[in-house]
């Protein structure tokens, strides 16, 4: 009799829940219908519905979000690791589509398009001097594999426009930005996101580095905002010994699911350092948390973002999508890394700014965790904390000295990149003739006073052309900056951007990391076996 009562009570609750749902859906439908039939002005029904969905999800948590059909395509493109197009890296310089480089082996390179070329017509339409934006370029150049796009190119030294018919193809997007030997036996890997092909990229790159002598690894996850959960699990599997819990997920409507390491992987031995910062989130925190909990390696940098929520995509009838939080993830010790969002989404999004204002990004002792969030690692019983990101084993403060505010502002405004593009437009061939490979460039090329004169002349001309001087004022700039005060970090950064546009991001990081205090601290620790082991036991 008691069992029958419990079953009856369950079904009554289910019926009441369904009735409440139907009632609320009817209410929402009534509001939308009233707006459609009776509102004083014409309305955009699609926009109203989208804003309703966005507001609805915003009330749940900061990571349940809506994507339009166009946004879905762009998000999938970056995570799936390829798109279909003509295969060029471009920028907009002086209102013209400027080719930085064709993708090696891609459709544009195959027909003879070169770095420094300018696309001035697409399918006969003039695209130079019309204030085209990046999306406008992508709309015209992307398309299904096998379709043809016709472009007209302006090339230095050629009097007439050069016409090309390019057959669109699948173009790879790489998530591994850099892979090089940081020292005699230390390989450096920079991963920008956890995409579908990231594990393959990392394993392939490390295989190459191992042939060069790599036995130990620095894996740089700074500003890596995450990606696919499965990719995070599979990459962590490459690093952990067999039968180690990597992560588990659990939610009200989702039973606990555990993910454990296997015997596969070529990175299970050797010293390991993971670089993180406040931009390292989600999948980056899954990997970092597992490595820290099992004392497999050291985490160096600053406290990570604090995103411990798992999202599942749900496709909608018009090609749009919502990503709905369905569970929380926990590190092997049981730490929940998700930071609080009780004060609302707006407050949540200001967390990093608040960390800076509170001094946390500069001083480790500005971070306080209650004893209730204290955990012990699973091998060496070191103290670690939950409740809002992964706290590194070795704290490295934000570098506020290396890059002066004026230079950071110039870079954010795009002036530095614009100057480099223009400089290489005139000097690319002579530079590559003089420096046949990156090693020669890195060793011998110097940013001298003549170069800086050109740089500041370009900057001031750019600023004067702007109608709004609010962001950077030329007169203030002149007073604050003198050529002999240009510090080492900005000069090396300019050289790194030059190297990137002459070669790839790999060369950029080889230069930039020489001034990077977090990277240098990691290198110091990983090359000293005794210091590394001592840190793992503290």
Brief synopsis:
The chain has 538 residues and is of the alpha+beta class. It has helices at 2-38, 45-58, 69-80, 107-111, 134-141, 198-211, 229-239, 283-293, 345-349, 351-357, 405-412, 415-434, 438-444, 449-465, 474-480, 488-502, 505-512, 517-526, 529-537, and strands at 65-67, 82-85, 88-93, 96-102, 118-122, 125-126, 148-154, 162-167, 169-172, 176-181, 186-191, 216-220, 245-251, 254-260, 272-276, 298-301, 309-315, 321-330, 374-376, 383-385, 394-395.
Describe the structure.
With 538 residues, the chain is of the alpha+beta class. The chain has 3 domains: 82-172, PDZ domain (Pdz3 Domain); 176-320 and 327-399, 2-enoyl-CoA Hydratase, Chain A, domain 1 (Alpha-Beta Complex); 405-515, no CATH class. 42% of the residues lie in helices and 20% in strands. It contains 19 helices and 21 strands. It has helices at residues 2-38, 45-58, 69-80, 107-111, 134-141, 198-211, 229-239, 283-293, 345-349, 351-357, 405-412, 415-434, 438-444, 449-465, 474-480, 488-502, 505-512, 517-526, 529-537; strands spanning 65-67, 82-85, 88-93, 96-102, 118-122, 125-126, 148-154, 162-167, 169-172, 176-181, 186-191, 216-220, 245-251, 254-260, 272-276, 298-301, 309-315, 321-330, 374-376, 383-385, 394-395. The strands form 5 sheets. Strands 3, 4, 5, 6, 7 and 8 form a 6-stranded antiparallel beta sheet that branches. A hairpin with a 4-residue loop joins strand 10 and strand 11. The longest helix has 37 residues, at 2-38. It starts with a helix and ends with a helix. The model is unreliable at 1-16 (pLDDT under 50).
């Amino acid at each position: 009799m008691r069992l029958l009562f419990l079953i009856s009570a369950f079904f009554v609750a289910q019926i009441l829940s369904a009735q409440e749902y139907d009632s609320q859906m009817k209410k929402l439908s009534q509001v939308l219908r009233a707006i459609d039939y009776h509102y004083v002005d014409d309305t955009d029904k699609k926009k109203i519905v989208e804003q309703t969905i966005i507001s609805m999800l915003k009330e749940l948590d900061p990571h349940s979000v809506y994507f339009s059909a166009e946004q879905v395509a762009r998000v999938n493109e970056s995570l799936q690791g390829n798109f279909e197009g003509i295969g060029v890296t471009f920028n907009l310089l002086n209102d013209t589509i400027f080719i930085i480089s064709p993708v090696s082996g891609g459709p544009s390179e195959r027909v003879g398009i070169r770095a420094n070329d300018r696309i001035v017509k697409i399918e006969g339409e003039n695209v130079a001097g019309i204030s085209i934006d990046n999306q406008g370029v992508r709309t015209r150049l992307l398309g299904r594999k096998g379709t043809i796009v016709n472009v007209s190119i302006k090339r230095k030294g050629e009097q007439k426009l050069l016409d090309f018919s390019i057959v669109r193809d699948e173009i790879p997007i790489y998530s591994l930005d850099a892979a090089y030997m940081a020292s005699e036996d230390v390989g450096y890997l920079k991963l920008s996101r956890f995409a579908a092909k990231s594990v393959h990229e990392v394993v392939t790159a490390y295989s190459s580095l191992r042939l060069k002598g790599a036995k130990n690894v620095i894996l740089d996850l700074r500003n890596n905002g995450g990606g696919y959960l499965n990719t995070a699990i599979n990459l962590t599997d490459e690093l952990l010994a067999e039968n180690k819990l990597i992560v588990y997920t659990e939610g009200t409507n989702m039973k606990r699911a555990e993910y454990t390491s296997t015997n596969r992987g070529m990175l299970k031995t050797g010293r390991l350092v993971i670089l993180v910062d406040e931009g390292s989130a989600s999948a980056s925190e899954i990997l970092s948390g597992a490595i820290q909990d099992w004392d497999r390696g050291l985490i160096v940098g600053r406290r990570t973002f604090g995103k411990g929520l798992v999202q599942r995509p749900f496709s909608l009838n018009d090609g749009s999508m919502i990503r709905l939080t369905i569970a929380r993830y926990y590190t092997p010790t049981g730490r929940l890394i998700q930071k609080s969002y009780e004060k609302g989404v707006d407050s949540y999004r200001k967390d990093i700014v608040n960390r800076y204002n509170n001094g946390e990004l500069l001083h480790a002792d500005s971070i306080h965790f209650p004893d209730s969030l204290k955990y012990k690692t699973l091998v060496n019983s070191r103290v670690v904390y939950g409740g809002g990101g992964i706290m590194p084993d070795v704290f490295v403060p934000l570098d506020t000295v290396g890059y002066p505010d004026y230079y950071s502002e110039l870079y954010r405004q795009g002036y530095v990149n614009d100057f480099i593009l223009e400089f290489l437009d005139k000097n690319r061939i002579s530079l590559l003739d003089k420096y046949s490979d990156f090693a020669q460039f890195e060793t011998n090329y110097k940013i001298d006073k003549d170069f800086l004169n050109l740089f500041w002349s370009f900057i001031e001309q750019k600023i004067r052309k702007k109608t709004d001087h609010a962001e950077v004022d030329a007169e203030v700039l002149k007073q604050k900056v003198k050529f002999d005060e240009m510090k080492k970090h900005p000069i090396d950064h300019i050289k790194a951007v030059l190297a990137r546009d002459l070669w790839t991001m790999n060369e950029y990081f080889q230069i930039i990391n020489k001034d990077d205090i977090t990277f240098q601290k990691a290198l110091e620790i990983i090359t000293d076996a005794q210091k590394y082991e001592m840190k793992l036991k503290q």
